[in-house]
Amino acid sequence: MDAAPQQTSKPSEATDAPERVALTAEAEAVVRRLTEQHGPLMFHQSGGCCDGSSPMCYQLGELRTGDSDVLLGRLEVDGVDEPVPFWMSASQFAYWSHTHLTVDVVPGRGSGFSLEAPEGVRFLIRSRLMDDGG
Fold first, then answer.
1. N or C end of the chain, less CB within 10 A?
2. How far is CA 45 from CA 36, 94, 111, in A?
3. Cβ(36)–Cβ(80) under 8 Å?
4. Residues 62, 87: contact at Cβ < 8 Å?
């Protein structure tokens, strides 16, 4: 059994809300590389099938978010100037509201429109139930 991935990112907003999302060191390295290529980034997890079943990485603002989306956190990554917001569709959040998400990266083909697709890797979500402390 694999050990749980070590999370390295921290949400940028100091709130009383528990941390809901983080990145592994490997995912942070891909975020740094993609930021150098494309500028500020964002994640969105739609919860749909196919491409929507994994987190999609876009240039910041490329995907319009609205009332049907929930901002889970803004991820700070060493070497990246702007925190990376992580959005999730409200319907998906209804299922995962008690879950902490860790964005990891593995070899493979990324989702069609996600920026990591040409890199030979794809982002994926690892999850665990949150306790009272997050």
1. N
2. 22, 13, 12
3. no
4. no
Global confidence as pTM: 0.84
Scored b (16 or more CB within 10 A) or e, 19-50 reads bbbbbbebbbbbbeebbeeeeebbbbbbbeee
Percent helix, percent strand, percent coil in the chain, to nearest 5: 20, 35, 45
Is the Cα dihedral 43, 44, 47, 49 positive or negative? negative
Longest alpha-carbon distance in the chain: 39
Cβ contact 110:116 at 8 Å: yes
Distance, CA of 123 to CA of 108 (rounded, Å): 9
